[in-house]
Amino acid sequence: MRQYFIDLRTEELRGKTQAFGWTPKNEISNGRWVMFGLLVGMLTEYATGVDFIDQLKLMVSYLGIVDLD
What we know:
It is built from 3 helices and no strands.
C-alpha cells in the first residue's frame, strides 16, 4: 500500500513538471495509434491485395514526396 502512494505522488510530480515527452500516458497513446495504423494497413492489404510496403510506396508517390516508377 505504501508503494502505491509513493508511485501516485511520483506520477503527480511528473505530471506537473513535464508537458511533453516520455510519459506513460503518451506512450500508451502512441502505442494505440501504431496498433490502429497497422490494423488499417492489414485490412487494406486484405481488401486490395497490395502488400503493406507497396501501399507505403504508393502513398509517398501520390503525395509527391518521392518519385517512384
